[in-house]
């Protein structure tokens, strides 16, 4: 997953390496990774993952959300669930040591990988060139929450997202890159279940409504803790999504709707006429706006769909 923050930089070209990274590149090609270099082997295994981490001085930590996938079958399962096809351009966030990157390239996709850790970003092209020479990879060294453009207009997002920022990263990418039409992300199980939850579900909340703004989200299978190194203390899940054919509404209405959603779930046990008074002015005004939108003011946020919140936002802006 991700590492430390770095300033925005262009896609990684072939540049001279520092002495430390030159040594790392040499180690990649040394006997310690001979298994990875065997003919026909295109994915990393547990030994190669640990060797790469050691040579780069990467000590996976919970703080940085670093848990690397070490199981090739899991990698291929993710690629299959994401229905990635040869020729697709795929965006991957937090490629880490390259397990999933290699799986995407193996199927014949082009990969645009956004990596925040300088060491990992510089090593990734070297690893790919060793395992799958000539594979179409572009690495962007940056924070995924700061990128403003992507080469190749990726049509799919397939990523093992850093668990500590998974929802903000996902929503940011959907908001800013309309070319992303579908994808699969691996996230903490509890977070993923919220993203895919329907109204009335006990875990339905702000992420559920905001995700629904962009399209349909569903759970696509749990992932064993044992396929990660180090083994995480939480369960993981795959979340698949398909973007709506057309945007639900304008950017102005999206912002207004999301403000209502945030207010509703910050005080989720209160009636909406109370929780939305923070945004709409006071309880009486909130009741009036909701009534015009055809929503019962005594309803709670967990009962409303994204279309209900949108209706309230329309009524709000109509009287602004």
Automatic annotation (TrEMBL):
Reaction equations catalysed: adenosine(1518)/adenosine(1519) in 16S rRNA + 4 S-adenosyl-L-methionine = N(6)-dimethyladenosine(1518)/N(6)-dimethyladenosine(1519) in 16S rRNA + 4 S-adenosyl-L-homocysteine + 4 H(+)
Residue intervals of the Ribosomal RNA adenine methylase transferase N-terminal domain: 74-245
Residue ranges that the Swiss-Prot or TrEMBL entry lists as coiled coil: none
Family: Belongs to the class I-like SAM-binding methyltransferase superfamily. rRNA adenine N(6)-methyltransferase family. RsmA subfamily.
InterPro entries according to UniProt: KsgA/Erm, rRNA_Ade_diMease-like_C, rRNA_Ade_Mease_Trfase_CS, rRNA_Ade_methylase_Trfase_N, rRNA_adenine_dimethylase, SAM-dependent_MTases_sf
Membrane-spanning segments: none
Protein name in UniProt: Ribosomal RNA small subunit methyltransferase A
Task performed by this protein: Specifically dimethylates two adjacent adenosines (A1518 and A1519) in the loop of a conserved hairpin near the 3'-end of 16S rRNA in the 30S particle. May play a critical role in biogenesis of 30S subunits.
EC number, as in UniProt: 2.1.1.182
Enzyme class: transferase
Gene that encodes the chain: rsmA
Residues annotated as binding S-adenosyl-L-methionine: 67, 69, 94, 115, 143, 160
Keyword vocabulary terms for this entry: Cytoplasm, Methyltransferase, RNA-binding, rRNA processing, S-adenosyl-L-methionine, Transferase
PROSITE patterns named in the record: RRNA_A_DIMETH, SAM_RNA_A_N6_MT
Molecular-function annotations in GO: 16S rRNA (adenine(1518)-N(6)/adenine(1519)-N(6))-dimethyltransferase activity; RNA binding
């Amino acid at each position: 997953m991700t590492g430390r923050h770095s300033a925005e930089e262009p896609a990684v070209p072939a540049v001279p390496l520092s002495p430390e990274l030159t040594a790392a590149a040499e180690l990649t090609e040394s006997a310690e990774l001979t298994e990875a270099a065997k003919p026909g082997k295109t994915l990393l295994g547990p030994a190669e993952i640990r060797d790469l981490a050691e040579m780069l001085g990467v000590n996976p930590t919970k703080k940085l959300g670093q848990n690397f996938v070490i199981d090739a079958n899991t990698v291929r399962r993710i690629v299959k669930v994401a229905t990635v096809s040869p020729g697709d351009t795929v965006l991957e966030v937090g490629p880490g040591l390259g397990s999933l990157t290699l799986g995407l390239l193996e199927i014949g996709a082009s990969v645009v990988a956004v990596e925040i850790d300088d060491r990992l970003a510089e090593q990734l092209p070297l690893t790919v060139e060793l395992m799958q020479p000539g594979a179409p990879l572009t690495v962007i060294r940056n924070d995924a929450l700061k990128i403003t453009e992507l080469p190749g207009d990726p049509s799919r997002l397939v990523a093992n997202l850093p668990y500590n920022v998974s929802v903000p990263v996902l929503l940011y990418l959907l908001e800013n890159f309309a070319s992303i039409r579908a994808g699969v992300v691996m996230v903490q199980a509890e977070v993923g279940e919220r993203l895919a939850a329907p109204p009335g579900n006990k875990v339905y909340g702000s992420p559920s409504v905001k995700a629904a703004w962009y399209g349909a989200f569903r759970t696509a299978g749990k992932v064993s803790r044992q396929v990660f190194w180090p083994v995480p203390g939480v369960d993981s899940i795959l979340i698949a999504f398909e973007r709506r054919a057309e945007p639900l509404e304008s950017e102005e209405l999206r912002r207004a709707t999301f403000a209502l959603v945030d207010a509703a779930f910050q005080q989720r046990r209160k009636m909406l006429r109370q929780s939305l008074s923070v945004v709409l002015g006071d309880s009486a005004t909130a009741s009036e706006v909701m009534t015009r939108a055809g929503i019962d003011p005594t309803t709670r946020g967990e009962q409303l769909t994204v279309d209900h919140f949108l209706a309230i936002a329309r009524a709000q802006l109509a009287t602004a």
